Amino acid sequence: MYQNVNRLLQSAFDTCLKTTAFQGFSIHHPTNSVSVWVRSLADVDRLTHLQTLPVTADCTVQVQAYLSSGSDLRRYVVSGVDPGESPEGIITALTCSTHKIVTARYMGRGRTCLVTLQGPRTPPSRITYYGCILKFHVYKPGVVHCYRCFRTGHMRDSCPQPADTSMESVETRTYKCGLCQTDDHEITSKDCPVKQKALKARRQRKRRQRSVTQEERDADIPTSNRFELLSPSEEDTPALVEPENACYEVPTYSDAVKRGKKTCSAACEYA
């Protein structure tokens, strides 16, 4: 079986490339893809015109060829290009001083395109589009999941597995509620007896909390840090007696010096 498939693929590539000098190919069953090694970019352009591949003698499948990232190829996402241009026009308008622009294609219907550059591993300093510097970043492809066999590397439409292991292939069984383990009501419904019991206990707990709070309020028990400013009475406030030697004026520096001299002279006389 595999020998027949390899022979049919070999003949398809020979017909597309119009030569038998390509280096070879390999089939990747998990990703449902085929890798082909060619000698030049001209052969890559020929392979992009290949639309179908024969799987058996009576069956063909649609394919889409693209250039994978090699050792000297890097892909970048460039934003700001004009919509509606052809890939050849984008390649002509884009310029880079350190890398060679190999391919370019739009990503969706916006102003963003995926550009493949050939050159050093380091990113380019700038990419210009009609002389204007555009923003770009390294392209990081996301992980592709298949919801038919639940494996990564391909999508549901190109799944190589004959059996459908998803829930859509079999009759949906009746699900049970995770709380009461019954199927007489919808999941997380208010009719669930376990949920009703929990809600009833919650209402009773809130009712008890409200009653305790009301009893504390009636008993005038402080339950928080609340303070009141009380004005002092005249009986509690003692009368202030002003001392005889009270001084309310700050002496000057010269008065303080003279006072010190008089004290010293008086002390000398008494001595």
Give your account of this protein's structure.
The protein has helices spanning 2-17, 41-47, 87-93, 193-218, 253-270, and strands at 24-28, 33-37, 52-54, 60-62, 73-79, 94-95, 100-106, 112-118, 127-129, 132-138. The chain is α+β, with helices and mostly antiparallel strands and 271 residues long. A 6-stranded antiparallel β-sheet has the order 6-9-10-5-8-7. Strands 1-2 form a two-stranded antiparallel ribbon. Strands 3-4 form a two-stranded antiparallel ribbon. The relative contact order is 0.07. The mean pLDDT is 73.
Compact overview of the structure:
The protein has 271 residues and is α+β, with helices and mostly antiparallel strands. The protein has helices at 2-17, 41-47, 87-93, 193-218, 253-270; strands spanning 24-28, 33-37, 52-54, 60-62, 73-79, 94-95, 100-106, 112-118, 127-129, 132-138. Residues 198-241 are annotated as: Disordered.
Radius of gyration: 44 Å
Q: SSE order, as H and E?
A: HEEHEEEHEEEEEHH
Largest sheet features:
6 strands, antiparallel
Number of strands: 10
The portion of residues forming beta strands comes to: 15-25%
Q: Topology, please?
A:
Blueprint lengths: L1 H16 L6 E5 L4 E5 L3 H7 L4 E3 L5 E3 L10 E7 L7 H7 E2 L4 E7 L5 E7 L8 E3 L2 E7 L54 H26 L34 H18 L1
Antiparallel strand pairs: 1-2, 3-4, 5-8, 5-10, 6-9, 7-8, 9-10
